[in-house]
Design a protein that fits this description.
Strand content: 15-25%
Number of helices: 16
Number of strands: 24
Strand order of the largest sheet: 14-17-18-13-12-20-21
Shape: globular
Bound molecules: nicotinamide-adenine-dinucleotide
CATH topology of the largest domain: Aldehyde Dehydrogenase, Chain A, domain 1
Largest sheet: 7 strands, mixed
Helix content: 25-40%
CATH architecture of the largest domain: 3-Layer(aba) Sandwich
Oligomer: single chain
Number of domains: 2
Radius of gyration: 23 Å
C-alpha cells in the first residue's frame, strides 16, 4: 500500500500569490479610488497581498452589472436544469481546487489546515451540489379556486442580492447564501469580511470558468462601514442577506428601512447554552462534545456552546475531562497537519477576546488558560480558557466573546438549567445531554433556540435550516427553506371564458 502524500503546507504557502482585486462583471478590477488595504496572515503577521478597498462607487458598478445581467435573463431565464448543470460544474471546480482553497482559508483567517481541508472545502462543495440538484425538482402551485379561474402561485427570483459575510467560515458562510441565491436565478454581489477576502475572490474566477455568466456573481472587497453599508443602502439592490454580529445586523435593518425596504435575512450572534444533566450516562462523550463545542475553530463559532451549564452531581467529572482535553489542544501553527487550535483571525479580535478574559478574571474563577501565546511567531494565538463559578449575569455569560473561552455555570436540576439557558438575548443554538427521554423532550421543547442538539453538539447537514431565535437573527440559511429568502411569491389569476 502506498503511503499518503505528506504535503508541506509551508512551502506551498510561500509559493502562493493570492488575488486581491475585486471581481466585477467577470473581471478582476482595482477599486476606482485605487485604494487598497493589507491582507495580513494571523499565523505569523506576513502580508499576503493588497486587497482592493472598494467603496460606494465600486458597489454602484457591481450593482449596475448585476442588474443588467439579471434583466437580460442571461442566467435568470435559463431553465433550472441548465443552471443546475453549471452549478454542478462550479462545485466540481471547487473540489478540484480544494488544496489551494483550503490553504487560502487557513492563511487568511488562521484555522487549522486539517479543518479547512476536511470541513470548509467539502461543506462548500456539498452546499453548491445540493442546491444545484434541488433547483430542478421544485414545483410551483395551483390554488384550489373556483373552476372559472386558474390561480397559480409561482416563485420568481428576487433580482439583485447583496450578500455580506463574516470571517469565521468565509467560504461556507458565503456558500450557504450564494448557492440558493444563484440556483434560484438571482444576480449577486458578495461582500466578504475585510479579514478574509481571499477565497471569495478565488471562487469568483472558478464560477466564471464553470459558466456562470459575467455580472451574475460579483465580489466586492472592502470594509463594513464603507463597502458593506453602501451595498445595504443601495436603492437598486432587492435584498441583503447578512451573516455577522447582532450589532451590525441591526444596522442592516436600519439601512433597508432608510433605503428601498429591501428584503433582509440576518444570521447573527449567539451565546449558546450547552447543558449536561445528572441523568446523562455518557459523560465522557458529553465532555468531549462540550470541549469541541467551544474550542473548535478557536471558538470563533456563532453556535459555540460558550455557556456550559452543568448539573451539580456530574459537574466535577465533566469539568475534569474538559480540562484534560483543553490542555491537549494548545494553539499551534495552523499549517501543521496535527494542529487542532489555530490562530485567532487578527490582532484586533485577539485584543477583544483578551479584554473579555480580563473581565472574566474579575467576575469568576479562571480554571485554565487565559493567556496570549506564541507571540514570538508574529501571529495571534490564545490558550483554551475555562472560567468556573460563573454567574449567568456576568459579562462573560451574557456577551458573545467569539474566542476559545468557556463559561461554566453550575445548576441544581433541569428547571434551573432551562431557566438559565433561556436567560439570554440570543437564541441561536442549545444542547442538552440526558439519558431520560422525557427529560430530553421537555428540554428540547423549552429551549428557545433555532437549532437544538440532544445528546450531541454541532451536528450539521445542509438539509436542515440554520438560524436563530431572538437577537440571533431573522430567517434561515440551508435546506429548501433558504429558497424563501431569494424568491418572491407571485399569485396570478386567469379567468377561464
Ligand atoms: P461583523 O458583524 O463585524 O461583520 C460581518 C460582515 O459585516 C463583514 O463583512 C463586515 O465587513 C460587514 N459590516 C461591518 N459593519 C458593517 C456596516 N456598518 N454595514 C454593512 N456591513 C458591515 O461580524 P464578524 O466579526 O465578521 O463575525 C463575527 C460575528 O458573526 C459573530 O457575532 C458571529 O456570531 C456571527 N456569525 C453568525 C453566524 C450565524 O449563522 N448566525 C455564522 C457565523 C458568524
Amino acid at each position: 500500500m502506498s503511503k499518503p502524500e505528506v504535503i508541506n503546507w509551508h512551502e506551498r504557502a510561500a509559493a502562493l500569490k493570492p488575488e486581491g482585486q475585486a471581481f466585477i462583471n467577470g473581471q478582476y478590477v482595482s477599486a476606482l479610488s485605487g485604494e487598497t488595504f493589507e491582507c495580513v496572515s494571523p499565523i505569523d503577521g506576513r502580508i499576503l497581498t493588497q486587497v482592493a478597498a472598494c467603496d460606494q462607487e465600486d458597489i454602484e458598478q457591481a450593482v449596475k452589472a448585476a442588474r443588467k445581467a439579471f434583466e437580460d435573463g442571461r442566467w435568470a431565464l435559463r431553465a433550472p436544469a441548465e443552471r443546475k448543470k453549471i452549478l454542478l460544474q462550479f462545485a466540481d471546480l471547487i473540489e478540484q481546487h480544494s488544496e489551494e482553497l483550503a490553504l487560502l482559508e487557513t492563511l487568511d483567517m488562521g484555522k487549522p489546515i486539517r479543518d479547512s481541508r476536511s470541513v470548509d472545502v467539502p461543506a462548500t462543495v456539498r452546499c453548491f451540489r445540493w442546491y444545484a440538484e434541488a433547483v430542478d425538482k421544485l414545483y410551483d402551485e395551483v390554488a384550489p379556486t373556483s373552476p372559472s379561474m386558474l390561480a397559480t402561485i409561482t416563485r420568481e427570483a428576487l433580482g439583485v442580492c447583496g450578500i455580506i459575510v463574516p470571517w469565521n467560515f468565509p467560504m461556507i458562510m458565503a456558500a450557504w447564501k450564494l448557492a440558493p441565491a444563484l440556483a434560484a436565478g438571482n444576480s449577486v454581489i458578495l461582500k466578504p469580511a475585510e479579514q478574509s477576502s481571499l477565497t471569495a475572490l478565488r471562487l469568483a474566477a472558478l464560477a466564471l470558468q464553470a459558466g456562470i455568466p459575467e455580472g451574475v456573481l460579483n465580489v466586492v472587497t472592502g470594509f463594513g462601514p464603507t463597502a458593506g453599508k453602501s451595498l445595504a443602502l443601495n436603492m437598486d439592490v432587492d435584498g441583503v442577506f447578512f451573516t455577522g454580529s447582532t450589532q451590525v445586523g441591526k444596522y442592516i435593518m436600519q439601512y433597508a428601512a432608510e433605503s428601498n425596504m429591501k428584503r433582509i435575512g440576518l444570521e447573527c450572534g449567539g451565546k449558546s447554552a450547552h447543558i449536561i444533566l445528572r441523568d446523562c450516562e455518557h459523560l465522557d462523550e458529553a465532555a468531549e462534545a462540550a470541549a469541541f463545542g467551544i474550542f473548535f475553530n478557536q471558538g470563533e463559532m456563532c453556535s459555540a456552546g460558550s455557556r456550559l451549564i452543568l448539573d451539580e452531581p456530574v459537574r466535577d467529572k465533566v469539568l475534569a475531562k474538559i480540562q484534560q482535553m483543553a490542555q491537549n489542544m494548545q494553539p499551534n501553527n495552523p499549517l501543521e497537519s496535527e494542529t487542532r487550535l489555530g490562530a485567532m483571525v487578527d490582532a484586533t479580535h485577539t485584543q477583544r477576546v483578551m479584554e473579555y478574559i480580563a473581565s472574566g478574571k474579575q467576575e469568576a474563577q479562571l480554571l485554565l488558560g487565559g493567556k496570549q501565546v506564541r507571540q514570538e511567531s508574529g501571529g495571534c494565538y490564545i490558550e483554551p480558557t475555562i472560567f468556573d463559578h460563573v454567574s449567568n449575569k456576568a459579562r462573560i455569560a451574557q456577551e458573545e466573546i467569539f474566542g476559545p473561552v468557556l463559561s461554566v455555570i453550575t445548576v441544581k436540576g433541569l428547571e434551573e438549567a432551562l431557566q438559565i439557558a433561556n436567560d439570554s438575548i440570543y437564541g441561536l443554538a442549545a444542547g442538552v445531554w440526558s439519558d431520560n427521554v422525557n427529560t430530553l423532550m421537555k428540554a428540547t421543547r423549552a429551549l428557545k433556540a433555532g437549532v437544538v442538539y440532544a445528546n450531541c453538539y454541532d451536528a450539521d447537514d445542509i438539509t436542515t435550516p440554520f438560524g436563530g431565535f431572538k437577537q440571533s437573527g431573522i430567517g434561515r440559511d440551508k435546506s429548501l427553506h433558504a429558497f424563501d429568502k431569494y424568491t418572491e411569491l407571485k399569485s396570478t389569476w386567469l379567468r377561464i371564458r
